[in-house]
Specification:
This protein is 62% helix and 0% strand. The chain is mostly helical. The chain has a domain of 45 residues.
């Protein structure tokens, strides 16, 4: 069989196997390939296993990126609350801290409504009324945050 004909095709699943085969025969008998009609054809063929492996690697890379994003978000949330006993962000209690904060907010709103209802019947000096109204409805303005 000569080079103009199709020749023989030896297919390897891995480039390393092909390189080893070529190295062995070229070292042992350099004329072996030409004499037997083999033609070197570089082609990449993926087996079903290779395709699955490539998909798995891509999925793992995407999952690792997502995990990194979620860990960063968890630490950012945890930094909004008091640290744990060791002084680190309390990442283990983020949800509990948020639920507690929501509960505190609901209680504060209820107190605000009660205080407003009680004070409505009183005549207060204008300065005191302004401070009380600000404290109840715009507490950020007392600290200079609202201006």
């Amino acid at each position: 069989m000569n080079a103009a004909e199709d020749g023989y095709v030896i297919d390897f699943d891995w480039q390393l196997d092909a390189d080893r085969w070529m190295d062995r025969y070229m070292r042992e008998n350099p004329d072996f390939i030409k004499r037997n009609g083999y033609h070197i054809v570089m082609r990449k063929s993926f087996t079903a296993t290779d395709e699955l492996a490539n998909e798995a690697v891509a999925a793992l890379e995407a999952a690792n990126a997502r995990i990194s994003e979620l860990e960063a978000a968890r630490i950012a949330y945890a930094n909004e609350f008091p640290p744990d006993a060791e002084g680190h962000p309390d990442v283990g209690n983020v949800h509990a801290n948020i639920r507690a904060m929501k509960g505190d907010l609901m209680v504060a709103k209820e107190y605000r409504e009660v205080i407003a209802a009680v004070c409505e019947g009183f005549t207060l000096p204008d300065a005191v009324r302004k401070i009380l109204e600000t404290a109840l409805w715009n507490p950020g303005e007392l600290k200079g945050e609202g201006s």
